[in-house]
Write a structure and sequence with these properties.
The protein has a single domain, classed as Immunoglobulin-like, CATH 2.60.40. It has a five-stranded antiparallel sheet with strand order 1-5-4-7-8, with no helix packed on it. The two termini are 28 Å apart. β4 (41-48) and β5 (53-60) form a beta hairpin. 24% of the residues are buried. With 131 residues, it is mostly beta strands. It is globular and about 45 Å long. It contains no helices and ten strands. Helices cover 0% and strands 53% of the residues.
Length: 131
């Protein structure tokens, strides 16, 4: 089992969200960075420009992940920027908007950012397993 050494910093408003009471709109409550490379990633961050929100992981070991949960928030579709360093090479993606599924499920969404070699990435939402 790999142990992760991570530093997490979360400012309210991550992923352009606001607190909610109902589930009539897409909502989210977690974020996962997945390192799908064979090299450790450093200085990984996601920024929400409109709200000055930031989430960071100092290091994500090869073939591992960094995640964080937060109170349920309505997804607002704000632009985000993703940054990371692999083998001393910095990468920046964005600003981008990640579109949630059109099907509204009763479970909250998890934002997933997959980071690949040579600056490639995937950004999408997945339904949480818990209601």
């Amino acid at each position: 089992m790999k142990f992760l050494t991570i530093t997490l910093s979360l400012v309210l408003g991550l992923a352009g969200c606001t607190a909610i009471e109902s589930t009539s709109q897409p909502s989210m409550n977690s974020l996962i960075f997945k390192n799908l490379t064979t090299t450790d990633l450093r200085d990984v961050e996601i920024r929400v420009q409109k709200l000055s929100g930031i989430f960071t992981c100092n290091i994500i070991l090869a073939n591992s992940f960094c995640s964080n949960g937060f109170p349920r928030r309505v997804y607002e579709g704000n632009e985000i920027t993703i940054r990371w360093t692999i083998n001393e090479t910095p990468h920046v993606v964005g600003p981008i908007v990640v579109t949630p599924p059109t099907f509204h499920h009763r479970n909250d969404l998890t934002a997933i950012i997959e980071l690949h070699d040579q600056g490639q990435y995937n950004a999408y939402f997945s339904f949480n397993n818990k209601p």
